[in-house]
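Provenance

Sequences were taken from public entries as deposited. Structures were produced by running a predictor on each sequence independently, with no templates supplied. The record for Pyrroline-5-carboxylate reductase from Egibacter rhizosphaerae is shown for reference.
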Amino acid sequence: MDGQLAILGTGRMGEALLSGLLRVGWVKPHQVRCSVRGAERAQYLADTYGVDARTESASAAAEADVIVLAAKPQNLGALLDEVGPKMHSGQTVISVAAGVRTRRIEAATPEDVSVVRVMSNVPVQIDEAMSVLAPGKHAADADVEVAREILGAVGRVITLPEDQLDAVTAISGSGPAYLFLLAEALIDAGILFGISRDDATDLVAQTMVGAAHMLRDQGRHPVELRESVTSPGGVTIAAIRVLEEERVRAAFINAVEAAKRRGEELASG
Ligand SMILES: NC(=O)C1=CN([C@@H]2O[C@H](COP(=O)(O)OP(=O)(O)OC[C@H]3O[C@@H](n4cnc5c(N)ncnc54)[C@H](OP(=O)(O)O)[C@@H]3O)[C@@H](O)[C@H]2O)C=CC1
Ligand SMILES: O=C(O)[C@@H]1CCC=N1
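Predicted structure for Pyrroline-5-carboxylate reductase:
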């Protein structure tokens, strides 16, 4: 890109974006200003990536063409109070904060600042993120394109209306946590049967990778994929029966609904 990028709140998400964008060459270190609260963290970012890292955000925001907001939702209000008055015409703001509506950010920034809200997820660290963009009121195609380039550096990107973003957050934003929990449970089952933790982890991780590739790349329905594993009178159906008796499917749907509700609470609080 031409111009300057600011990443405000460079924690896990912000750092993953920073490292991905530098790796693909979308920006050079001298184009990037990062902000955090802690001086030690700022020093780490400067030493690791050769970027300008600061403990105040207002100057970084004022100097940038594109501003990524990557603080926790609970800290975003304070961050916006600090940087909003320093922003100016023509800037693009990309917020990755869960639950924070574009209209909340638009209210804290000058009239002609464009806002694009993003929900990404933690595989952003290995360039396998699923990111969903939702343009705000003033966002033009060019602003969405910038967001698409940034998130496209670290995974897949689609655009959806903002009213679907709390659901997206609960499914793909939080989704890796559900799959890690499932992995823990399957690894524990292996340990119960005397398989070493390392071997059980290998079994589970590669099984998840293989299954994920089939689901993503073969264009087949998950029911068909599951049926292809479930032999009549065989082993898998014995497990499926228990999962259905334990209402695992309903538990997942209820869990995602609870996550969506929490996103809505964060938005209104
Ligand atoms: N983790 C995940 O899987 C996902 C996270 N998200 C969203 O990404 C955002 C970031 O999450 P995550 O990276 O996990 O959080 P982290 O806590 O790792 O990072 C947040 C960063 O924000 C900094 N910060 C907080 N307040 C300020 C401020 N006023 N000025 C400057 N910096 C500030 C913190 O600085 P310091 O370290 O110095 O305290 C920290 O580095 C959240 O809004 C979350 O909703 C979205 C999808 C998935
Ligand atoms: O738990 C959270 O609030 C964030 C948003 C989605 C994933 N992690």
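The longest strand covers residues 129-135.
Strands lie at 5-8, 32-35, 52-54, 66-69, 92-95, 114-119, 129-135, 155-159.
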